[in-house]
Predict the 3D structure of the following.
Amino acid sequence: GTGIAGGDSGESGRRVRINGAAARSSEDMLEWLRVVWLTPAMDGLFPGPAADRRRFLDRLVLAIDPAHGQRALDYEKAMRGRHPLLTEGSRDG
């Protein structure tokens, strides 16, 4: 469960325990908890820009597969590197 506990040094804060053991980080909770939601503010998501839909789907997959975060970052990095190569190639042509 969760709760607020005082430490030995007098500090307090939220503590999370999973199966009786203290969670080391919020990422530990990803093994047990998956949350996905749609809100009214997202009503422009589907008719809107493709980048917004891609970002939403990346977050959706991240909720199921935590390793997807690194793959999404790698993809974005490759896409940023692709643009200069394409513009350079068009000048050569």
Remarks:
- The helical segments are 50-64, 68-92.
- The chain has two helices and three strands.
- Strands lie at 2-6, 12-18, 21-22.
- The CA atoms of residues 86 and 92 lie 10 Å apart.
